[in-house]
Amino acid sequence: MNNQGPIFSARPVLRIDLGAIKDNYRAIKDKVGSKVQVAASVKADAYGLGAERVSRALYGAGCRVFFVATAGEGKGVRTAVGDNASIYVLNGPAPRDLSLIFGSDLKPVINSLTQARIWGDAIKSVNSPPFSAIHIDTGINRLGFPADEFEKFCKNKNLQEALMFDHVMSHLACAPDKDDPYNEVQLKAFQRSAARLPLKPLSLANTAGVYLGKSYHFNMVRPGIGLYGGCATNTPKQENVKPVVSLMAPVLQIRTLKAGDRVGYNSLFTAGKDMTIAVVGAGYADGIPVSSSSEGETFSGFATVQSRRVPIIGRVSMDLTVLDISELNKVPRIGDWAEFLGSNFEKDAKDASLLNYERLISLSTRAKREYK
Length: 372
Ligand SMILES: *Cc1c(COP(=O)(O)O)cnc(C)c1O
Fold this sequence. Notes:
Largest sheet: 9 strands, parallel
Number of helices: 12
Bound molecules: pyridoxal-5'-phosphate
Radius of gyration: 24 Å
Helix content: 25-40%
């Protein structure tokens, strides 16, 4: 029964389509028009896809501004893209990170008076220090100057001058829902606040913000998820993103079950009839979420084998996942691929009750990465 295919490895493969990332970048560029710069959010290792490879690809598509969360991430991106790009560090300057920031010519985003003072002091004695950006909180109450600190900052012209900022930004809380009135509340607050600072290029929109219309684009947009094949808004059709990632797991064993046989840890699945199953070599250590497991006949996850969708049965384990392949016309050979994600990325995340962001981030490094 276990018919072996061609030479194969038991290691799963993560296919990352850099061409699709570039196409997604260009699509956003077309959407916002030539007067608006399209930066790229490549924090968290470009949402798990590999910041250096991804940043270099985006640079090739014309991207010259990158956003990371930490200085360490910025260092990697700098190595990848060379000197002719701006790299902003969203979480701001921390005393321990200053040498990294200067060493890799990163631009810190200043989120508070405390960070303003850290940066102001740090660059006092530095020849031609990097520029920075000012982040004004307009209602997400996460990072960024809160209203009272912003008041003080507006009055302190010396501090403003000392920081040498070349960008002013804010961040939207509810952009996926075009009808949420909070978007306009934040838009107005941003316009009002930015007008109180010296005139600099402005940005407000993440991927979802791009779809809120021209008034949200300002001088720059900062998409992340949309570049990586994820939908950002409640009306995904308008986004038309190309899929970017496929997790390929090799079939390791084919088995037949009799009605009543149980599958996997905790026997979450019991065969209701005779069936054929495939055990494939990828599990939650590779980013197939445990929440894709099925409890009984309620399926929360699927793979594609021979172009057909087949359900995950039982609990996903660390290195293995079991698929019901009873409905396939042909029994796969050992070493044939089962594909996870691919063009079903959005649905797979939803079925597993995960944010599409989370689903991307959980892809680990055990799978062999193949970039094309
Ligand atoms: C992560 C992030 C983005 C990108 O968000 P997406 O929803 O992935 O497009 C933009 N701006 C800031 C401040 C962020 O933290």
